[in-house]
Design brief:
Radius of gyration of chain A: 30 Å
Oligomer: heterodimer
CATH class of the domain at 142-226 in chain A: Alpha Beta
Number of helices of chain A: 17
Largest sheet of chain A: 4 strands, antiparallel
Strand content of chain B: 5-15%
Largest interface: A-B, 120 and 108 residues
Radius of gyration of chain B: 38 Å
Helix content of chain A: 40-55%
Shape of chain B: globular
Order of helices and strands of chain A: HHHHHEEHEHEEEHHEEHEEEHEHHHHHEH
CATH architecture of the domain at 142-226 in chain A: 2-Layer Sandwich
Shape of chain A: flat
Chain lengths: ~375, ~850
């Protein structure tokens, strides 16, 4: 549990307060927690001295090639990961892509996920299980075919007749009026009418052959009626004393607008959706969390700092970019560095047109030219003269 | 020391500038004009003005370059040129040419944008070009023009514009009429510098007309050397072949034009010249048939030379090769220190360390030279101050000893204590390349302490490893200070030790520190001695000492530690003032990548000490096993008859349960789980029952084979798991393919020996037998299915993860921590304000954190 600043203040004596600017927040916090009840000033000074000394000892050294270390720390365990594990947590949870494909998917910055998923937390009283099935159904996307038992084509009148499942409609809270409205919105070229339990549909265009009607029928089947678009499956699950709805398919923007959803905890595994609804900072955190989740389930041990660095690189521009030749790599300043990655000819040709100058400020160019690289011991600029 | 006086070169190249060569510049840098496709005259001497002209550099030993006067290897070669009879388009710039033609006026060659608009957009475009690159800028300009275009007239001269299309690869048409490169070039010429800039081109680097080639530079001979075959025949390089074609067609074109040949013939030759020049640059253009050898294999021309993994950039420029390295099979030697490597004596006599002769070591080095290359430790070469290297042979030894004086360098054999860099591929992390100290040993394998296998991911089933000897003081110093095994002990990935006890060392220490282990004091002293501890004063003065007391002799007196072990009987590990009070030493404490014991030792006493203790613990463990005896046998998996009966019962019960589930399913009584179909529910339930049955047999096995060595290995974490044992003694269990029971094979069944639609356990891959009792044919088959799947998984995974790794490494390699603690890339862009939000180095942390509690306690205790 995180302590509030005021609480920390109270617990910490003056000698330690000075540390606030010196030690990072997280260490300062846990120091406050691990202090004994009573602490004399002189002892406090000892603690302060010790902590600062230890912290300084553990700090990264300037020049440390943290990027490559992060790449190694993710790349090396990558070889040990299994390819296609589907994750079964409990008997009734759904399959989610895990393992290497998921990591590749996230780091590629792929827009279309293999298994988009949401975890929807609910407000009280729904989180306690009230109307949980009903709530779940409201989230699920309903197409026309979900509430129709039978479609048939009346060739004589060239119209479509559909038998509505009235029971199901009542369950979902769809009335005739809302149905007609929804259908008109999703298939504009249609004339709709409901009589009893039969739905009549006709093309707006006056003359239409049978094949046109058939096409229209297929289109109408998929027509969106109710729920959240993109959510194809819903599954209410009990998780730590409360009900949570897991969904297959993701549309967090719409879900967050629903009144019964706890918008502070609801998440999706789609980084780009998070970026567009909640911003890059949230997307960065999502990348870290998602990658960490995979690594954890694989039973591997990778420090969070490496994932942070990767996420920061992907988000440094204010937009989520994948680690590909079109994303992060294309933004490198050096021509030779870009050329050494992929599509060298393209980069060299473009550089020649622009008269680009490569200042050899990164690693690969200097490797190419057999020169010391500007990281680690290579950044010291001391020149010794033999005289 | 004469050569020490030479100025210290710090860095030679500071920038690399890219651009396009102008025809004028091509002529200027050229050493020769090439006029004839002939290569050699009758005597085999390069023809003047031919492609192998000696002014372009030399590839024959003995000849001298006419331009610079240097010999082979000293002369890097010089460019030549061909003046083309007619201009030709450069294939790589076709898309730029198209853009330039389409968006400039055909009459006045101004950009098709009203003057006011140019002013309006110029700055914005330039900024875009600077940020995102010129191709983005070009695209933006196109968009702007397309959006503003009204009618087809030039906003400047009002000339009517025509539609320009390209017929790939290199032919341009304007309303059906072909634009010849000559016309094209003259249009490009007219574009003003200011307009050129709008297109994202830099007029200082390239004038658009230079893209249409009038003068073709000829690469130096040295980059297209010919090979002399055994028959004495010369085989020319692909580029020379291609250039020969170009020169030949160019000559013919010249002649035909001069002779006033019909237009059609000239055009045909012109097209042919265009083809040859196009394929000279790129032989993989989509619309062109690639130029081929007589044997039919495509020529490897310029583009193919540069690109792809085997191309110049990735193969030669970023990938380096090295001398002074060795490679053989590795084998273990627990008697070596962790930071040593055993090197075969033959290797030590081939690899050398350069040592500079001074007044003080001249006599010492003379001895090496005297022994020569054949006696160990001798020397292989003597390097004179002018850099000339002299090989030592029996005849030259005497003269070399006479000659030796300060300033010379003797390349002596590698000796004990020299620095070497040891490496095993794939080098996935920095611990794959560590520095070791050499121990020269007999026999022919490289030897390493088995404790360092883990960071290298090495085993001894035939693995080979590489060894490099750094050749300069600077390299040696860096290797020793930054790369030696001691420094790599704590992983930068998770902040725990990557070096730990493995296999026998774990079993041994587990047995030693288990309650109830004791031996006579005399034996204990012997044991410690064999682990390399001569001082046994830490042993209590008793006749019989306990195992924990023996282990404690390795620990420093002021070391305290609290942790957990895997063992169920003694889970709490407590070390107080250098004494192991309770708990066993198993994989959780001694193994790699787990537990803080090694990490804390490292923290408190430093890396040398930690590594030293680890080495001793390792040897102690092995010594215990050697003294006590340790073996694993088939009889370890023997079960008493009543256990067999119990297992039998478990199976019968499970089978009944499965049958019950199936009949429920068939009769429709089974209720589906939420979000599942009925069939899936059944499968899940059956899987659950069968897994439970397997676990139960495992428990029965564990209860009945308690004291065996196999179980010791499993419990201590040295090798194997209780599950492995259960599979050997009890039952192998359900074979799962992608999280389900096996279901594919024949229609409706897995194998032809089962009934269609049979859902029972044995027909869907449940293996009732144990590995010891032997598998039935169907069971064996099911196991092979899963085995093959696992094999495929690995085969498919390796390239995927390899590519991910390459991309990550490429994207992140320039990130470094600056002096202000920020993480920045090579362009100085800040990526993180503080590394990992707290500037902690993982490889200096304790499992990723600063252990505040420990630090506070230590401070309070004094």
């Amino acid at each position: 549990m995180r302590l509030w600043k005021g609480d920390v203040e109270k617990m910490v004596s003056d000698a330690l307060k000075e540390l606030q600017g010196i030690l990072p927040e997280s260490i300062y916090q846990s120091m406050a927690e691990s202090l004994p009840e009573k602490l004399s000033e002189s002892k406090a000074a000892l603690v302060a001295k010790k902590l600062v000394a230890e912290y300084n000892e553990m700090k990264v050294e300037p020049g440390e090639s943290v990027g490559l270390v992060a790449a190694e720390s993710i790349g090396e365990p990558g070889t040990q990961m299994t390819l296609d594990t589907f994750h079964f947590a409990g008997v009734s949870e759904m399959n989610v892509t895990m393992g290497l494909p998921r990591i590749i998917e996230i780091l590629d910055g792929r827009k279309k996920l293999i298994t988009p998923m949401m975890e929807i937390y609910l407000k009280k009283p729904y989180s306690e299980g009230q109307d949980i099935k009903k709530v779940a159904l409201m989230i699920k996307e309903t197409c026309l075919q979900d509430i129709v038992t039978e479609f048939s084509i009346n060739v004589a009148d060239s119209r479509i007749e559909a038998q509505l499942d009235l029971l199901r409609m009542r369950e979902l809270g769809i009335s005739d009026v809302t149905l007609i409205k929804a259908l008109k919105a999703s298939v504009p070229s249609i004339v709709v009418d409901v009589k009893g339990s039969t739905l009549f549909m006709k093309a707006k265009a006056k003359e239409s052959g049978v094949s046109d009607v058939f096409k229209l029928k297929e289109k109408a089947k998929e027509a969106y009626v109710k729920g959240v678009r993109g959510v194809t499956q819903v599954l209410p699950v009990r998780k730590n004393d409360e009900y949570v709805i897991l969904t297959f398919g993701s549309n967090i923007k719409k879900v967050l607008q629903l009144p019964f959803v706890d918008e502070t905890r609801t998440t999706t595994n789609d980084v780009f959706e998070i970026e567009s609804t909640l911003g890059v900072e949230a997307a960065r955190q999502a990348i870290i969390d998602e990658v960490y989740k995979v690594i954890e389930t694989q039973g591997l041990n990778v420090d969070i700092r490496h994932l942070m660095l990767v996420a920061d690189v992907m988000c440094a521009n204010g937009k989520v970019k994948g680690i590909t030749r079109y994303g992060v790599v294309s933004e490198k300043a050096s021509v030779l560095a870009r050329a050494s990655f992929e599509t060298p000819i393209k980069h060299i040709i473009n550089a020649s047109l622009y008269g680009e100058v490569d200042n050899l400020s990164s690693v690969v160019e200097n490797v190419m030219l057999n020169q010391p690289i500007p990281v680690g011991t290579g950044i010291t600029k001391l020149i010794s003269k033999n005289k | 020391m004469p050569d020490a006086e030479e100025p210290y070169v710090y860095k030679k190249v500071s920038t690399v500038v890219f651009g396009v060569l102008s025809p004028k510049l091509i002529r200027k840098i050229a050493a020769a004009k090439i006029v004839t496709p002939e290569l050699y005259d009758k005597e085999g001497y390069p023809v003047d003005g031919g492609l192998m002209d000696v002014r372009l550099g030399v590839i024959d030993p003995g000849l001298r370059c006419k331009t610079c006067g240097s010999k082979l290897k000293e002369c890097t070669g010089h460019f030549g040129y061909i003046a083309l009879a007619r201009p030709v388009i450069h294939i790589s710039f076709v898309s730029v040419i198209l853009t330039l033609l389409r968006y400039t006026c055909r009459e006045c060659s101004r950009v098709l944008l009203p003057a006011a608009k140019i002013e309006q957009y110029a700055d914005r475009l330039k900024r875009l070009g600077k940020d995102k690159g010129s191709d983005v800028m070009r695209k933006k300009l196109k968009d702007i023009i397309n959006a503003l275009r009204s009618g087809s007239r030039c906003p400047h001269c009002k000339a009517k514009q025509k539609k320009i299309v390209i017929e790939k690869p290199t032919t341009f048409f304007e309303d059906e009429r072909r634009i010849s490169p000559i016309e094209l070039r003259s249009r490009l010429e007219k574009i003003t510098d200011a307009d050129v800039e709008l297109f994202g081109l830099n007029p200082a680097a390239v004038r658009p007309e230079w893209i249409v080639i009038t003068v073709l530079p000829i690469p130096p001979v040295t980059m297209r050397p010919s090979i002399t075959l055994e028959t004495g025949e010369r085989s020319e390089d692909d580029l020379t072949h291609k250039l020969g074609d170009i020169v030949r067609i160019n000559q013919r074109l010249f002649e035909n034009i001069n002779a006033g040949a019909p237009e059609i013939i000239v055009e045909d030759l012109w097209d042919l010249l265009q083809y040859h020049i196009t394929t000279f640059f790129d032989n993989e253009v989509a619309q062109l048939p690639p130029a081929r050898h007589r044997s039919g294999q495509p020529l490897k021309t310029l583009t193919e030379r540069i690109k792809s993994k085997e191309g110049r950039i990735r193969h030669n420029l970023t990938g380096k090769r090295t001398n002074f390295s060795a490679r053989t099979v590795i084998s273990p030697d627990p008697l070596l220190e962790l930071n040593e490597v055993g090197m075969p004596d033959i290797m030590a006599m081939k690899l050398t360390v350069p040592e500079r002769v001074t007044e003080w070591n001249i006599n010492y080095l003379k001895e090496f030279v005297r022994r020569g290359p054949k006696a160990y430790p001798g020397a292989n070469y003597v390097v004179r101050p002018d850099g000339r290297k002299k090989r030592l042979t029996e005849e030259t030894i005497e003269a070399s000893i006479e000659e030796l004086q300060p300033g010379y360098i003797v390349e002596r054999h590698v000796m004990d204590g020299d620095i070497a860099v040891f490496n095993r591929q794939p080098s996935l992390h920095r611990m794959s390349m560590m520095c070791h100290k050499v121990r020269v040993l007999p026999f022919k394998t490289l030897r390493l302490n088995p404790a360092v296998c883990f960071p290298y991911n090495a085993d001894f089933d035939g693995d080979e490893m590489n060894l490099h000897i750094p050749q300069t003081e600077e390299a040696r110093a860096e290797a020793e200070l930054l790369m030696i095994v001691d420094t790599q002990m704590i992983s930068p990935r998770y902040g725990l030790s990557v070096i730990g006890c493995i296999q026998d060392a774990i079993s041994g220490n587990y047995l030693l520190t288990k309650n109830g282990f004791s031996m006579s004091r005399q034996d204990a002293v012997n044991l410690l001695a064999s682990a390399g501890i001569a001082d046994s004063s830490k042993l209590p003065k008793k006749d019989v000492v306990a195992g924990k007391e023996i282990f404690s002799a390795l620990l420093p007196d002021d070391f305290s530690f609290a942790g957990r072990s895997k063992s169920r009987e003694e889970p709490e590990v407590v070390i107080k003032d250098g004494k192991l009070v309770s708990g066993v030493m198993d994989k959780n404490n001694l193994g790699e990548g787990s537990g803080l014991l090694l990490r804390n030792l490292h923290k408190k006493y430093g890396r040398h000490f930690a590594l030293d203790v680890l080495g001793k613990v390792f040897k102690l463990g092995v010594a215990v096993l050697m003294k006590r005896g340790f073996t694993t046998a088939v009889s370890d998996t023997d079960l008493p008859p009543e256990a067999r009966l119990q297992i039998q019962n478990v199976f019968e019960r499970a089978e009944k349960e499965v049958a019950g589930l199936i009949s429920h399913y068939n009769s429709g009584q089974l209720e589906a789980l939420p979000g599942r179909t009925l069939k899936e529910t059944l499968e899940l339930k059956i899987l659950e029952v069968l897994n439970r049955a397997r676990d139960e047999t495992g428990k029965i096995v564990a209860m009945n084979v308690e004291a065996s060595h196999t179980i010791v290995m499993a419990i201590s974490g040295a090798r194997g798991t209780p599950l492995n044992l259960a599979q050997m003694a009890g039952c192998v269990g359900q074979q799962a393919l992608r999280g389900r029971r096996i279901e594919n094979g024949y229609y409706g069944r897995t194998l032809s020996c089962f009934r269609k639609g049979d859902l029972s356990a044995e027909s869907r891959g449940f293996i009732k037998n144990s590995f010891k009792s032997g598998l039935r044919p169907a069971e064996f088959f099911f196991q092979s299915i899963v085995g093959r799947d696992a094999l495929m998984d690995t085969a498919l995974r390796t390239p995927k993860s390899g590519y991910l790794y390459r991309r990550l490494a490429n994207a992140l390699q320039d990130l470094k921590v600056e002096y202000d603690n920020t993480v920045r890339d090579s362009g100085g862009r800040i990526v993180q304000f503080s590394y990992g939000e707290d500037s902690l180095d993982v490889s200096k942390s304790e499992g990723g954190v600063l252990n505040v509690k420990r630090a506070v306690n230590e401070a309070l205790e004094g």
